[in-house]
Design a protein that fits this description.
Layout lengths: L5 H6 L1 H4 L9 H4 E12 L10 E12 L10 E12 L8 E12 L13 H6 L3 E8 L1 E2 L10 E13 L8 E12 L10 E12 L10 E12 L10 E10 L7 H5 L2 E16 L11 E11 L5
Antiparallel strand pairs: 1-2, 1-13, 2-3, 3-4, 4-5, 4-6, 5-7, 7-8, 8-9, 9-10, 10-11, 11-12, 12-13
Length: 302
């Protein structure tokens, strides 16, 4: 019996997809994506004059299995995520994945070689299905009792249009998520489904050099917790306005593979339009003012 080498075995699934064998470059089977933000928050929707500086990050090292990225994207990943602030609240001072790991798939990413992406792939391509286990650590000896493990499974959708392209008169960013979560910072059996949405959209005047980077925008955020209605911070609709600066970024292969793909400076005011469940006591502020810088690496936003 003839011995078949491992590289040949890895390429055999391409036949099932009707694909020609393409050169297996590192970009097709390995990538890195991340999203990070450093900001000042006025109330954090938590307490009047809370005044906190906060840094949060989420990153994935992704391995793409046959038929590999560019044909159909799926495979395992390792996750590092955390948040830290100038205050001592546990929910903003923790390793949220230290580390974490899971499996993900983009079910609408399939594309035949030589064909232009169809409308369905263009719209639904960013939809990601995932299941992951995260090891969590809330900082400080007083937080040693908090859950050290979290399981999440569901879907999310990150999509952006013309964010760092001042040649367009408009831009937008979308996030949608629906996932089951096993634990939070105070319960090992939180066991709930969370549905969230966020939309930011703005206008700019192209062709004005530096002024084209400045844009006013509208912001809407919604979150629903299907089991814990008393968690008012997860059951509300928030809306507001903002102003951001988004410099032009080079449209190179590196900027969409693992390099800088998004960079903004912003200031925004948000107010709670309504609560879906329990309305908190009047001492809980319904507004927040925040300003900061946010950046993404790789294909975090599609």
């Amino acid at each position: 019996m003839r011995r078949i080498h491992l590289p040949v075995l890895l390429l055999l699934p391409l036949a099932a997809f009707g694909q020609e064998v393409r050169p297996l470059t590192i970009q097709r089977w390995l990538s890195f994506s991340a999203n990070t933000e450093a900001a000042h928050r006025q109330t954090q929707f938590f307490s009047k004059n809370y005044q906190t500086a906060i840094l949060q990050w989420d990153s994935r090292a992704e391995i793409w299995l046959p038929p590999f990225r560019g044909v159909f994207a799926w495979g395992p990943y390792a996750r590092i995520a955390g948040v830290t602030s100038s205050r001592k609240q546990p929910w903003e001072n923790a390793w949220l994945a230290a580390p974490g790991g899971g499996v993900q798939a983009y079910p609408f990413s399939y594309q035949r070689k030589g064909r232009e992406p169809g409308k369905v792939r263009g719209v639904l391509g960013p939809l990601r299905l995932f299941g992951e286990v995260n090891h969590t650590q809330y900082w400080g000896a007083e937080n040693a009792w908090r859950p050290a493990k979290q399981v999440r499974a569901g879907m999310d959708y990150w999509k952006s249009f013309h964010v760092n392209d001042p040649e367009h008169s408009w831009w937008s960013e979308l996030w949608n998520g629906a996932y089951w979560q096993s634990a939070n910072e105070f319960s090992r059996s939180y066991d709930t489904v969370i549905v969230g949405n966020a939309v930011r959209a703005g206008i700019r005047k192209p062709g004005q050099k530096s002024l084209a980077m400045i844009s006013p925008y509208l912001s809407i955020e919604s979150s629903r917790n299907t089991r814990h209605k008393q968690s008012y911070w997860e059951n509300r609709l928030v809306a507001g306005v903002g102003l951001r600066i988004a410099p032009s970024l080079p449209k190179t292969a590196s900027s969409t593979a693992s390099g800088l793909s998004r960079l903004i400076l912003y200031g925004e005011y948000l107010n709670t339009a309504t609560y879906y469940g329990v309305t908190p006591e009047s001492s809980i502020p319904r507004y927040d003012f925040r300003f900061g810088v946010s950046a993404s690496l790789g294909d975090w936003y599609k």
